[in-house]
Amino acid sequence: MSWLKHWKEYNRLQKVKLAGKAAAILCAAMAVCLTGVLLLAKFMGPPPLLVPQTTVIHSSSGEEIGEISNSGQKRTWVPLNKMSPALIEATLSIEDKNFYNHHGFDFKRIAAALLADLRAGAKVQGASTITQQFARNLFLTHEKTWLRKGMEAFYTIRLEMNYSKNQILEGYLNTIYYGHGTYGIQSASAFYFGKDASHLSVSEAAMLAGVPKGPGYYSPVYHEDRAKERQAIILKAMENNRYLSKKEVREAAAAPLTIVAEKEMQKPKIAPYFQAEVMKVLEKKLKMDSKQIELGGLHIYTTLDVSMQKAAEKEIEERIDPDSSIQTALVSMDPRNGDVKALVGGRNYAESPFDRAIQAKRAPGSTFKPFLYYTALKNGYTPSTAIKSEPTSFAMGDGQQDYEPKNYNNLYAYDFITLSEALALSDNIYAVKTNLFLGPKKLVKAARQFGIKSPLASVPSLALGTKNVSVMEMTNAYNLFANGGKRVEPVFIKEITDNKGRVLYEHHYKQKQVLDKKAAFVMTDLMKGMFDEKLNDYAKVTGASIDQYLTRPAAGKSGSTPTDSWMVGFTPQLTTGVWIGYDQGKEINRINDGSYSKKIWVHYMEDALKDEPAMAFKKPKGVAGVMINPKNGKLATKNCPIKRKTYYIKGTEPTEYCNEHAGDLPMGSDGLDHKRKGWFQKVFPWWH
């Protein structure tokens, strides 16, 4: 039987050898596969970390005023060195204490987890490292399949081979979900505690580190008790890993926590109409892709001044009857560079996102007259030019009906008035006569020079602002008076950076001198007249109801139509336009509605500039200021009861002294007090 024994021994040895060869082949195959995987991972290089991030909109001072994100998810990237060290230590302690000592897989932890699962007969313990979780968050779904597990392992290898541990940890902490639509530690810190991730305390860090295990289950907003229990586990783990002492653990556990999440969720949106316009500029002017805007984690630095915006919204809310359906628009700009500092497109964005400041076009009324009078100054007029104010019928010819403009409330001087008075009192007869004398085409050309792009018509009534324009157009046009004749374009965005702080776009300011400096300054001085009651005549100056509120030099012009009320005015630092009216074009109530625009304008301007020094308009060379009698435009004498300093382009100032008061210079040689004669009578037979 010995041969049988030898045979069995031989077979056993053969099987051992075969098994050894199989094992060697298997090991070799596994080695080849592993080498192949490693070579492929290295060949493919670093996986792109295309993490959707929230784009943040900032005010001119850097304050966050809004966010743009897809699906309402809030994501903000912050560098590792800008995170609280306690947060990093808490996360490592609870998620992956051996993170800096493994190469993506913690095999001891995997073995321990398998053993625990076998003993329990179910999956009770996880073993994923931070790198594995980061790979899953970045590239994969959370379905439980072998294919997904294999892909997760491959991405883990690629991450470990091509990124440093700090880069991986930074990516993980910026992408993990913390509940309530917040992704990443910066968004979570702001949501739960109202602070940056760099300012988290040990107690707050331990609380946040516990949320990702079950964002809904461990949310301190919904389940404070569970969150505190989880916090205690993490603090103990931090002690075990020698990040904290026993005393520090006790202090952190006992520290009170203030959860501000509910307040943050209800935080009102600042300047919604302004932000909507920022989006249009991004897409239409800067041609930025919508995905880049929504997912790129950009930082958009705008021109908005939050304090000015709040002042504008406050004045509108307080001045307008809350039960009225009347609408409004306000644009406020820095005339020196075109920065839009505040913008209101309506009384309630949620109810009506239609932007009445930019999209709507309404008849500007008498706010259009300064463009006419600037042209007049360039064509022989001076502030003393006199024209008769009386009801006038203008023959249009060619079978057209005669044109009969009227003054407000049918009030007229029935005498000659100066250009200074005509503008301050908003005399319509003076304006139409001037437009016809110059030729209506010149007014259209002048409006284009001021940047008005809306369709206009060369008609006599254009002098009275009968063609529709936007509040933005009018405000920007008045900038040219405020800045000495330089055209600037409205600016909403100053700079855009990516999530790493690299500048993607920077606005380059441009100015072009398009007006004559001397004529622009004289016009500014004329527009100050609406607040100067020395120019009262057959009616009060149009700013008489608000001039007592002004504490600084200001100029402007009001305007009205049956359906619109306007006020556009400026200081050297700020130009603001206000419109009031009904969306449906219903006539406004002159007694109640008509005063809104002026009151909003003056109180807003005073509030917006309360911390700014009062500045005078800078007089250019070639302009002379003389004291005149505002009633006749002649040089004032000591006997004139009213004297007013008025500016003229040098060489055009009056040379004749007033002779209407006892003791004045002698009258004419014939002994008569001659009335001023308009030189326009030679041109138009209907001139009186």
From TrEMBL:
<keyword id="KW-0378">Hydrolase</keyword>
<dbReference type="GO" id="GO:0005886">
    <property type="term" value="C:plasma membrane"/>
</dbReference>
<dbReference type="InterPro" id="IPR023346">
    <property type="entry name" value="Lysozyme-like_dom_sf"/>
</dbReference>
<keyword id="KW-0645">Protease</keyword>
<keyword id="KW-0133">Cell shape</keyword>
<comment type="similarity">
    <text>In the C-terminal section; belongs to the transpeptidase family.</text>
</comment>
<feature type="transmembrane region" description="Helical">
    <location>
        <begin position="21"/>
        <end position="41"/>
    </location>
</feature>
<dbReference type="InterPro" id="IPR012338">
    <property type="entry name" value="Beta-lactam/transpept-like"/>
</dbReference>
<feature type="domain" description="Penicillin-binding protein transpeptidase">
    <location>
        <begin position="329"/>
        <end position="597"/>
    </location>
</feature>
<dbReference type="InterPro" id="IPR001264">
    <property type="entry name" value="Glyco_trans_51"/>
</dbReference>
<feature type="domain" description="Glycosyl transferase family 51">
    <location>
        <begin position="62"/>
        <end position="238"/>
    </location>
</feature>
<dbReference type="GO" id="GO:0008360">
    <property type="term" value="P:regulation of cell shape"/>
</dbReference>
<keyword id="KW-0472">Membrane</keyword>
<dbReference type="GO" id="GO:0006508">
    <property type="term" value="P:proteolysis"/>
</dbReference>
<keyword id="KW-0511">Multifunctional enzyme</keyword>
<dbReference type="InterPro" id="IPR036950">
    <property type="entry name" value="PBP_transglycosylase"/>
</dbReference>
<dbReference type="Pfam" id="PF00905">
    <property type="entry name" value="Transpeptidase"/>
</dbReference>
<dbReference type="Pfam" id="PF00912">
    <property type="entry name" value="Transgly"/>
</dbReference>
<keyword id="KW-1003">Cell membrane</keyword>
<keyword id="KW-1133">Transmembrane helix</keyword>
<keyword id="KW-0573">Peptidoglycan synthesis</keyword>
<dbReference type="GO" id="GO:0071555">
    <property type="term" value="P:cell wall organization"/>
</dbReference>
<dbReference type="GO" id="GO:0009002">
    <property type="term" value="F:serine-type D-Ala-D-Ala carboxypeptidase activity"/>
</dbReference>
<dbReference type="GO" id="GO:0008658">
    <property type="term" value="F:penicillin binding"/>
</dbReference>
<keyword id="KW-0808">Transferase</keyword>
<protein>
    <submittedName>
        <fullName>Penicillin-binding protein, 1A family</fullName>
    </submittedName>
</protein>
<keyword id="KW-0121">Carboxypeptidase</keyword>
<dbReference type="GO" id="GO:0030288">
    <property type="term" value="C:outer membrane-bounded periplasmic space"/>
</dbReference>
<dbReference type="GO" id="GO:0009252">
    <property type="term" value="P:peptidoglycan biosynthetic process"/>
</dbReference>
<keyword id="KW-0812">Transmembrane</keyword>
<comment type="similarity">
    <text>In the N-terminal section; belongs to the glycosyltransferase 51 family.</text>
</comment>
<dbReference type="GO" id="GO:0008955">
    <property type="term" value="F:peptidoglycan glycosyltransferase activity"/>
</dbReference>
<dbReference type="InterPro" id="IPR050396">
    <property type="entry name" value="Glycosyltr_51/Transpeptidase"/>
</dbReference>
<dbReference type="InterPro" id="IPR001460">
    <property type="entry name" value="PCN-bd_Tpept"/>
</dbReference>
<keyword id="KW-0961">Cell wall biogenesis/degradation</keyword>
<keyword id="KW-0328">Glycosyltransferase</keyword>
